[in-house]
Amino acid sequence: MTVAENGTDLARLAARRVTLIYRLDLIAKGAQLSYEDGTLVDMASEQTRLEDEVARLDRLIEALERLAD
Hints:
By secondary structure, this protein is an all-alpha fold. The protein is built from two helices and no strands.
């Protein structure tokens, strides 16, 4: 992986992480999502899924940053 690719990947992953944290904040404030058919999304499961994804991204970002050093 080139330095430019690594930087692009880091920026993309960091942006994705920010989006997920924003969604977690909305959930904490009581947001409720629904599917197209009107069925409510299980927000506890969604929160857990997003937290797991943020943790995964944190590990991936850390690994890419180590490669950049």
